């Protein structure tokens, strides 16, 4: 009797752990919940095994300054709209009226906003998708745009430069960020997957740093960070993070995946660069060092003495 048990047990584990399912994040994968984790996404869609995938780790000393990466023009970003926020089983997503656009910023065309969503950790722990010199921030906002000539994302994704995503990092702050109250408060009503609720008045401007703080950013070409992983995205990652308190960050971990487990660590691991160059805008990184240099010179010349 004994010798039979092991093969039977192995056979049943094998079946359970290899059954193909929907894609999932690593935090969702257990032998009881058989889904395709990030290392198997290429089974769901071969694009996910491509050479130019996102997210990536940005090594700042290997970035190259590109003077063409000028400040963005944000149009109608201050437009107040009534939106629907939805728990789609992978994230929370808000559709945006296609009236808000971006241009400049070294983009080849004007792009209009389509939706925004977030990626986060567990109770305010590491959760961003992109990392900077290996540092993972607690959360990352993606505002997804498509070239203004397109009417839907599917069409835009067929164009290698069809989609532009603006990525913003979050950092823990001591006080709550009141501009995020509408979003944070709405989360309590959409804990379950496939539920939604209205945001009565919201604007993109209120969610991101002020315009003068958006001149320092990184740029590279990559993909969507969820299946189908289409390589049609011009990525922008802003250096300046958005502040949120620990309590605000924690509320995201109260959301639930389809199976009722906490929706946590909703990020794809960083992907190989495969020879891609990451660029930085003229004012990224350099800003800090030139300020320091000027301060040093001023001190040396005795210019910084209090009057
Ligand atoms: C929101 O949920 C309602 C039902 O509760 C549904 O009719 C509607 O289509 C949903 N909206 C979105 C955008 O998912
Ligand atoms: C935003 O910019 C202002 C002035 O340009 C500066 O005082 C402030 O520190 C910046 N905020 C952040 C978060 O960098
Ligand atoms: Zn995203």
UniProtKB/TrEMBL annotation:
Spans traversing the lipid bilayer: 284-303
Topology in membrane: Lipid-anchor; GPI-anchor
Catalytic activity, as annotated: hydrogencarbonate + H(+) = CO2 + H2O
Enzymatic class: lyase
Entry's Gene Ontology molecular function annotations: carbonate dehydratase activity; zinc ion binding
Family per similarity comment: Belongs to the alpha-carbonic anhydrase family.
Gene from which this protein is expressed: ca4a
Predominant localisation class: membrane
SUPFAM superfamilies: Carbonic anhydrase
Cellular component annotations (GO), alphabetically ordered: plasma membrane; side of membrane
Superkingdom, taxonomy of origin: Eukaryota
Ranges for domain Alpha-carbonic anhydrase: 21-282
Free-text function comment from the UniProt entry: Reversible hydration of carbon dioxide.
Keywords linked to the UniProt accession: Cell membrane, Disulfide bond, Glycoprotein, GPI-anchor, Lipoprotein, Lyase, Membrane, Metal-binding, Signal, Transmembrane, Transmembrane helix, Zinc
Subunit structure: Interacts with SLC4A4.
Organism listed in the record: Lates calcarifer (Barramundi)
Signal peptide: 1-20
Protein name, entry field: Carbonic anhydrase
Record EC number: 4.2.1.1
């Amino acid at each position: 009797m004994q010798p039979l048990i092991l093969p039977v047990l192995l056979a049943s584990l094998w079946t359970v752990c290899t059954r193909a399912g929907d894609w999932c994040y690593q935090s969702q994968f257990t032998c009881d919940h058989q889904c395709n984790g990030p290392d198997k996404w290429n089974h769901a869609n071969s694009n996910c095994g491509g050479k130019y995938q996102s997210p990536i780790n940005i090594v700042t000393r290997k970035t190259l300054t590109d003077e063409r990466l000028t400040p963005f023009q944000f149009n109608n970003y201050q437009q107040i709209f009534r939106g629907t926020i939805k728990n789609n089983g992978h994230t929370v997503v808000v559709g945006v009226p296609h009236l808000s656009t971006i241009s400049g910023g070294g983009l080849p065309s004007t792009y209009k906003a389509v939706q925004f969503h977030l990626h986060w950790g567990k109770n305010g722990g590491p959760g961003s998708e992109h990392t900077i010199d290996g540092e993972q921030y607690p959360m990352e906002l993606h505002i997804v745009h498509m070239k203004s000539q397109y009417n839907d994302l599917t069409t835009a994704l067929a164009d290698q430069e069809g989609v532009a995503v603006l990525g913003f990092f979050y950092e823990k702050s001591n006080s709550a960020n009141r501009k995020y109250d509408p979003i944070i408060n709405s989360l309590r009503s959409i804990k379950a997957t496939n539920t939604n609720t209205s945001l009565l008045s919201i604007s993109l401007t209120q969610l991101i740093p002020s315009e003068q703080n958006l001149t320092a950013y990184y740029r590279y070409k990559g993909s969507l960070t969820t299946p189908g992983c289409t390589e049609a995205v011009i990525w922008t990652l802003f250096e300046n993070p958005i502040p949120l308190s620990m309590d605000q960050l924690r509320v995201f971990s109260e959301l639930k995946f389809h199976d009722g487990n906490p929706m946590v660590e909703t990020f794809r691991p960083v992907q190989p660069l495969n020879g891609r160059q990451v660029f930085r805008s003229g004012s990224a990184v350099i800003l800090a060092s030139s300020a320091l240099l000027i301060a040093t010179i001023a001190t040396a010349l005795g210019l910084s003495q209090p009057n």
